[in-house]
Structure formats: C-alpha cells, structure tokens
Amino acid sequence: MARKKILVTGGAGFIGGNFVQYMVNKYPAYDVYNLDVLTYAGDLTKHRNIENKDNYFFVKADIVDRGTIISLFEKEQFDYVVHLAAESHVDRSITDPGVFVRTNVLGTQVLLDASKHINVTKFVHVSTDEVYGELDFDPTTFFTEDTPLQPNSPYSASKASSDLLVRAYYETYGLPMNITRCSNNYGPYHFPEKLIPLTISRLLNDEKVPIYGDGKNIRDWLHVWDHCKAVDLVMHEGREGEIYNVGGHNERTNLEVVKTIMTILSKSEDLIEFVPDRLGHDKRYAIDPTKLENLGWKPTYTFENGIGQTILWYLDNKQWWENILSGEYQDYFINQYTIKNAKNC
Ligand code: NAD
Ligand code: TYD
C-alpha cells in the first residue's frame, strides 16, 4: 500500500482520539498526524500507547491560526484531511456561542483554504445529525441526506455553517470532499459532560444524575468505533462531493438510557434528579443510514453490548475521568446545574 499522509484534526478529543487510534493501528503504511490545540476537551494521555510509533505524529496548533496551518500544509503535503476539531457541547454553546463560531466556522474555512492550496486528495468533514434540527416523536420519520438543514442550537448552527462552506468549496473550487453526519456517539474517552459518561461517572460516585425536562427526548446512539469505521470507509470509498448519514437505529429516550445504566450498575432510580430543561432542547434525532449501508457499512455494536462494554471501560479507567472531574470541570458543573448535590461532584 502506498504511503499516505493523513491529517486528523481534533485527535486529542473523544471521537478524533478513537479515530487516530483506529487509523494508526489499522494502517501502518499511513502517517497519521494528530493536530489539536488541546482545549478542555483534548488530552494526550489517551495516546500513550501509540506516541512512540513511527506512523503517529502530534502537532499542537489552533485551526483558526491561518499562518501556522498554511505553513504546516505546505511542509507536510497531506493526502487526506479528516476534520473533527470542534467545540462540541450544546450546553456550552448556549452559554457562549462565540467560541463555536470561531472554531467550527472560521477554523473549518482555514482548513479548507489550506486543503485547496495544496490540492489534497480528499477533505472529509465530520459533522452531525444535529444540523437537520429535530424530528417529532413519529417513529417512522428519519433524517436522510436530503432533509433540509434547520439547526436549533448555536452548536448545530455552527456545524451547519461549516457544512455549507465545505459544500461551497466543492461546488466553487472543485475541492474533493465528503461530509458525514453522525448521530450521538458513546464509548471510551467520552468527556464526562455528555449524558452517558456523566451518568456513569456520577453513579459510580453515588451522585444524582441530572435529567433535563421530562427525560422523554430521544437520541440515536452509535458506538464510537462504528463511527470510526464509517469515516474510514467514506474517506476511501465515498463518492466525491457526497454526504453520508451515520447511525445504527438505536433510538432511546434519555430516561431509558439513564435507567439502563442504573440497572447495569445496580443503582437506585432515586438518584435521578429532574432539572430545568435545556433551552431549545431538540425533541428527537433518528438517522436513516441507507446510503452509507449501500457503500458497505454496517454497525457491529448493539446498544446493549456497547453500553455494557463502555461501563466496564469507565470502571477500568477511573483515573482518566477522575482527573477531569477534579479540575476546572467542577466550576462548569456548578454553573450548569442547579442540582442539589452539585458541590459534591
Ligand atoms: P470533543 O469535544 O471531544 O473533541 C474536540 C477536539 O477538538 C478536542 O481535542 C479539542 O482540543 C479540539 N479542538 C477544539 N478547538 C480546536 C481548535 N481551535 N484547534 C484545534 N483543535 C481544537 O468532540 P467530539 O465529541 O470528539 O466530536 C468530534 C467531532 O465529531 C466534532 O466535529 C463534532 O461536531 C462531531 N460529532 C460529534 C458527535 C458526538 O456524539 N460527540 C456526533 C456526531 C458528530
Ligand atoms: P448530550 O450528551 O449533551 O448530547 P446532544 O445534546 O448533542 O444530543 O445530551 C444527550 C441528551 O441528554 C440530550 O437530549 C440532553 C440530555 N441531557 C440531560 O438530560 N442531562 C444532562 O445533564 C445532559 C448533559 C444531557
């Protein structure tokens, strides 16, 4: 296999981190460059097992820093760019939208310019189903690639804006690209501000789990390794200029997700605490993945075996999430929730 250079942005985060591990181990003939500025969500300890490998490189850089990014692209002449760097948490976007526009919109534009400048083979933009807005509770309706974009949160609006820029660079300049739009991920190294790792980590400390509103909102959960496989397939086989939805038909209400984790951990449902609803809280997300399945993808995890393995991972890797919980995250949690035992987190 010909040696290729792959730039992965956001490779110190949750999905990017799993994707870097997946690519470094699966493709010894590819040089994998992890570019990340290391925000609160980025950490490199997850890559200790690969940091001495010949095909792994780390670059600390901000994707908005045009001069640095253009010089890096000129020097390294990447073949592929897989773009995951982003501000990713909806609640933070409600409190502070500006940084979402900076990173997700302006940062994407800088990467597109750099990719066009050196004529990359392909730019893979990792986006989200949240750009489609919300569905109602009719279980026969799904997001397809043709669903109009109707983002409701500052996060999803910033991602939709970046999707449109990627599309425009394809239409205007012929930059080869694919966009993937995945449903909610879960799995190892998921930052404990998101529902599933928040629930697991708080239950393991016998702390209350905050559920927004009535807990009936629905998300479509996919194990992060199935997402990594999808991005790999799209990078290699995706038809130029196409968008692919990624999801495995694992719809659950938030209450069902939390209760499933409680059952596995033998914790009392008294630990549920209903808290005020998220502003503009999207009711339901659900993906129709037919187009990606026709390309040859199918998920390997059911929600049941994926969530069981994920809980085991959090039990085995307490040090990783406890380090996060003991840092600046404490202030975030207290500001975010009016939960009775917030000070105990
Ligand atoms: P994350 O918040 O865990 O990680 C984001 C990473 O990007 C961090 O390592 C952070 O340091 C880095 N980063 C942020 N700003 C940067 C900047 N200016 N320059 C360089 N690096 C920067 O996010 P995640 O959950 O792993 O999501 C990754 C991507 O996948 C995002 O684009 C997100 O929109 C998309 N996505 C996420 C989900 C999900 O369920 N988490 C689902 C679908 C799509
Ligand atoms: P989250 O993990 O933040 O992902 P997203 O908002 O991108 O879907 O939230 C998943 C669902 O869980 C969402 O409907 C909001 C809800 N939620 C809670 O009920 N309580 C919480 O503390 C958090 C973080 C989320």
What does this 3D model show about the protein?
The chain is of the alpha/beta class. The chain has a domain at 4-186 and 221-246: Rossmann fold, CATH 3.40.50. The protein is 41% helix and 17% strand. It has twelve helices and twelve strands. It has helices at 14-26, 66-76, 90-95, 98-117, 154-173, 195-204, 224-237, 254-265, 290-295, 303-316, 318-325, 329-336, and strands at 4-9, 30-36, 56-60, 80-83, 122-128, 177-182, 184-186, 209-212, 218-223, 243-246, 251-253, 272-275. The strands form three sheets. The chain has a seven-stranded parallel beta sheet with strand order 3-2-1-4-5-6-10, sandwiched between helices. Strands 7-9-11 form a three-stranded mixed beta sheet. It has a two-stranded parallel ribbon with strand order 8-12. Bound molecules: nicotinamide-adenine-dinucleotide (NAD) and thymidine-5'-diphosphate (TYD).
Q: End-to-end distance, in Å?
A: 49 Å
Q: Number of helical segments?
A: 12
SS content category: alpha/beta
Shape annotation: globular
- List the uncertain runs: 340-345
- Number of strand elements: 12
The secondary-structure element order is: EHEEHEHHEHEEHEEHEEHEHHHH
CATH architecture of the domain at 4-186 and 221-246: 3-Layer(aba) Sandwich
Percent helix among the residues? 40-55%
**C-alpha-based Rg, rounded:** 19 Å
The main sheet orders its strands as: 3-2-1-4-5-6-10
Bound molecules: nicotinamide-adenine-dinucleotide, thymidine-5'-diphosphate
* Average pLDDT, all residues: 96
Share of residues in strands: 15-25%
> So, the CATH homologous superfamily of the domain at 4-186 and 221-246?
NAD(P)-binding Rossmann-like Domain
Biggest sheet record: 7 strands, parallel
Q: CATH fold name of the domain at 4-186 and 221-246, please?
A: Rossmann fold
Q: What's the CATH class of the domain at 4-186 and 221-246, please?
A: Alpha Beta
